[in-house]
Known about the structure:
Order of helices and strands: HEEEEEEEEEEE
Mean pLDDT: 84
Number of domains: 1
Low-confidence stretches: 1-18
Largest sheet: 6 strands, mixed
Radius of gyration: 19 Å
Structural class: mainly beta
Strand content: over 45%
Amino acid sequence: MACTISPARSIRAFYECTAMKLIDFIVCDDIRQEVGGKVTLVGVYEDRIMINAPSPDAVRWPVQLRLGFFIRLLNDGSLPDVDGFDLRIHCNGKIICRLSGPIAIPPRHGLINLFFVNSSVRVPGKGPLDVALIFKHAGTVVREIRPDLSIQVGVASPAASGPPPQVTRH
């Protein structure tokens, strides 16, 4: 079904014609639930996770990291009944983190925030991270979302350049 959104239409109209889709997938060091419902993301990674070491040879793989995963979805209400989820993080083809459990998603339009912190993600070596978020009903996959994620795990050299340029808006 095609949907046209004019500037005069509301955000609700936008929600009503958008399929369930991924809005944000953020990898960070920690996530905190604040009073009043706010969520604080600490140590947000951009396109790389750099392991600090005096030299690349000094790194002892696997490296254990504490990683948080913040996921924001736009629910159009069409997701079939789900009762479970499975979040899988891969590095070099190996599952390095798997978080799963029960979940209840209301059948209504709107944003859904999911966030998880795992304090023992064992990264086997340098390489890209790949992610799959799977929703299930009675053990059967009903929806799988694979973010277009491009985070490289690497080793920081002492003379490495700084972080990528930042854009600041006031």
